[in-house]
Amino acid sequence: MKNIIALFILITGTFASAQSFDFQYDHYSVIVKDLDKVGAFYKDVLNLKEIPHPSAPSGFKWFVIKGNSQLHLIGKDSVAMEHSKSVHLCLATQKLDELIASLEEKNITYYDWPGKENTVTLRADGVRQIYLKDPENNWVEINDAVHLIKNN
């Protein structure tokens, strides 16, 4: 009987460890020095909708990306960070050409992955992508990847 119970625990433990936690993307946070200037970039250039912080009246700016996904800007007096392009917020849109036209109209430089100005990268999987910097040089990738909601 003990062997059957041990086998049951082993089998159910194996199944439990293979289960998905069914994560949903919640938010990305960025520490910034000039909260108003960086907030204006995300609001006015990328047209993200600002939402109120649930408890703090100052020091934060929150934006909705889509659904419940959010961007949180956190204002700090000093920000010690190297701005590597490999560390970035990535947003996807099926309106990449319209966004590029808007950036060009506002004289905002964007880059391909190697760093050539005002150029689009075409990834091997067919996704087009650009990179731009917010006012404090945090990188933002914007691509035209299609995201389908999967019900598992």
From TrEMBL:
Domain VOC stretches: 24-145
Keywords: Dioxygenase, Lyase, Oxidoreductase, Signal
InterPro entries reported in the protein's UniProt record: Glyas_Bleomycin-R_OHBP_Dase (IPR029068), Glyas_Fos-R_dOase_dom (IPR004360), VOC_core (IPR037523)
Presence of keyword Signal: yes
Record's signal peptide: 1-18
PROSITE patterns: VOC
UniProt cross-references to Pfam families, sorted A to Z: Glyoxalase
MF GO annotations: dioxygenase activity; lyase activity
This protein's name: Catechol 2,3-dioxygenase-like lactoylglutathione lyase family enzyme
Species name: Maribacter caenipelagi
Organism phylogeny: Bacteria, Pseudomonadati, Bacteroidota, Flavobacteriia, Flavobacteriales
